[in-house]
Amino acid sequence: MNRATRLPIQLDRNSPVPLYFQVAQRLESLIESGDLATGTRLDNEIDLADQLGLSRPTMRRAIEYLVDRGLLVRKRGVGTQVAHAKVRRKIELTSLYDDLAKTRRDPQTRVLSFATQPASDVLAVEMGLPEGTDVYVFERLRFAEAEPLALMRNQVPANLLTLTAEDLEAQGLYNLLRANGVNLRIARQSIGARVATAAEARALGETKGAPLLTMVRSAYDDQGRAVEYGDHLYRASRYSFDLTLTGW
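The chain above was modelled as a monomer; its predicted structure follows.
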């Protein structure tokens, strides 16, 4: 069992943001960054309130806010622990593997299927490939901290690199592309949502009909070559996309 952890939190008492919310935001940031890993046990509310110079009701409200969001869980006889942090991902040309590794979420991959076959007519048009181009077609289940997170179907032109299922279980796809001199430059991406089928739910540890985020991406390298077509599903309970919007 993990020992209780002191929290490196500083509060701005002159801010209009309520103190409980400042605490909750900082805790959420620590969880998402991996500084507070899944299973980490926090001190009790009284000790936490003393550490931060807060009243117990204020500290309790911050904890309850994160419990309601599924980031913390209370266990009888154990106390308050970090639950499963939701993966928040910026809309950038990065791989899920890299993003998970960067936040110390222990990415792991299970290859569910792997084959080489001629590109379909639809894929050839979508990626601008010559008709009949051989492509690797594979499906992977991606884990974060030993919990299933995403079901990923990809197609990659076979003339770009030599690829095996073992390679894909050991490393992320973008790592393998970069190692073979492929520099990703631009992608078209569409994000949506739908409910899980029975098979998808079993793979992802969800119930049939659970909400899933969808992402379809066509990526190109610095030579303008199509290098990847991805059709991915993410657990909405564990994953979100972040966008930054600016005004004119």
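The two ends are 51 Å apart (CA to CA).
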